[in-house]
Each structure stands twice: as structure tokens, then as C-alpha cells.
């Protein structure tokens, strides 16, 4: 955290304001008299252009509770110059929200430029084509999910509790999670139609699959989960999450976040927990 602050282009107080944290609380956390919350860790990571895994474990791909993204699924690092890095992040955030809210094919470079108060030429400087906006939007979502999972799960040692928390972090609740689901839904569609998009999709999805699988395997080692093949259980659980998530996102009658949560908990208790 101190290294992040050293590389930050503003003051410690300005950094605290940017992550929405009182400067006094930041000082207490730095002095070891207060722990950062999971939400604070994710905001620190995004503002400092690092991962939560790096903050907690010293490396982006350190072995942790969540599988690290493969290199192709990691967001391209922001430009080194502070003013360019800030503009890059502003453009990425705007594109991510516009694509999630309107749909990839309804978003033009000019729309992103208007949202950022800049010119289309500036957008093209950072993202040469519109496809680059979509691929970086997916990488942004992968990064957000990874940071959120590491921040929320790193202190949970019980695999059963961790699996239920993983499910909770994947529900398409209103706000950022529902927007992430929208990005994924569009990437699924593009990957089905365009083979060149499939490597990024596969590498991005593999991270989520591996996170579930290692949680189930740990639960089996702890004796709380059944000895059924962990890969088979992961395939069934992720397929159920995907299918229910799409039904909630498309507002199928009778499908809600609450109903999705209950169905997933029922599956875990019925198929994964040791009887």
C-alpha cells in the first residue's frame, strides 16, 4: 500500500478522497491499527492500477483463494504517463458502462468520446478499433471479479462458507454485478459468431471455472464436500449459474435474484455437501 501511495501522482489525502475513504481511516490502516475492508481493497487496487492479489500477496498471480486470470485475460496496463493513464481509465470506464447499458453494437466511438468530453481521435489513440473497447471491457470485468473475490474470500478458511460467498458475488444484483453480466452476455454472443473472440473468452472463463473447482477440492480435503469428481461438480454448478443468470437478466417471469440464490444453495446442499 505504501508503494502504491509513493507512485500515486497526488497526496495521501487526495488518494483517500479518490477511493472514498476518510484520510484518518487511511492513516490508521497504514499504521496497522485498522484493517482495510474488502470494498476498500478493491478501490485501492483499481486506483493504484494493481491487483488485490498483489496488495495482499505481493504478486498478481500468487496462489490464493481465487484463480488468477491468464495473461490474455488481464487488462492491458495503463500508459505510464499519469495524464495518459487517467484518460485511459476514464475512457475504459465510460466504454464499459455504455456497452453494458446499451449493448456493444449500439455504442459508437463518438458516444464514448462524448461521454468523456473528448474527441474520437483521443479514443482511437488508446483503443484503435471498436472491438478493442469490447475486449478491454471484458478484461476489465475479469479484473474486477478477480479483485472482488480475493478481497472478499482471502480470510474465509471454511470451503463451504467460501463457496456460498462465491455464489453471492456472482448474482446479477442491480449495479456493477448486473452490468458485468451484461458484458459477459454480449461476449458469449460475439464468441459464438466470431472465432477470433474465443481465446479471450475461454481464458477469461477458465479463471472462474478454476476458482470454483479449487474451492470444491479444498472442501473435499476438509471433509465437508462429497468425493464426487470436482470438475464434474464445477461444470454443473457453473452451468446452473450461467443459465439462471441469463434468465434473471432477461427478466423471465418467475426468475429473480432471490430465486436464483435459493436454487444455487439447494444445489450445493443436495449435490456438493457431504451427507
Automatic annotation (TrEMBL):
Any coiled-coil regions, as ranges: none
SUPFAM superfamilies cross-referenced by the UniProt entry: Homeodomain-like, lambda repressor-like DNA-binding domains, Tetracyclin repressor-like, C-terminal domain
Keywords noted in UniProt: DNA-binding, Repressor, Transcription, Transcription regulation
Domain HTH cro/C1-type: 5-55
One Pfam family named in its UniProt record: TetR_C_6
Sequence ranges assigned to domain HTH tetR-type in this UniProt record: 85-145
The protein, known as: TetR family transcriptional regulator C-terminal domain-containing protein
Organism: Saccharopolyspora taberi
